Description:
By secondary structure, this protein is an alpha+beta fold. Helices cover 43% and strands 18% of the residues. The strands form three sheets. A two-stranded antiparallel sheet has the order 1-2. Strands 3-4 form a two-stranded antiparallel sheet. Strand 1 and strand 2 (57-59) form a beta hairpin. The longest helix has 34 residues, at 6-39. It starts with 5 loop residues before the first helix and ends with a helix.
Amino acid sequence: MSEMSIEELVKEAVEDIKEQFLNRGTRVSNELRTAAMQTLRGQGSGRVYRVPGTKQTFTASAPGEVPAVRTGAFRASWTPSTITEGQTVISRIDSRLKAGAYLLGDLLENGTPGGRMAPRPHQDKILEKAEEAAVKIYSEPY
């Protein structure tokens, strides 16, 4: 077995830490998606609508509540990703689901232009739900 120089040992340790950091970023992204699934579920306490083409009803979310689930498409559309920029790892989830020309998540989070629909804030609630697990993951020893 050959001996390694200090430089080689340091280089190997740095590469191992980079790999661990990326793995942790992926784990945090998955925690964010789990938090989204837990936050975006159930019916709301707002207006009751008839589901088109059926005799069933749907209770929408009230202004200020997280969006209620009717079809599950928005809830299922969240995709986790981990991005590295230099020595920074960004863990995130995105929903690219559109409503017309707008991203549905933006319309729900901020309300519609002109104020026809009030905001249904959900992004901060997802982050709050995932925060403890994310801090725990990133705080693990290397």
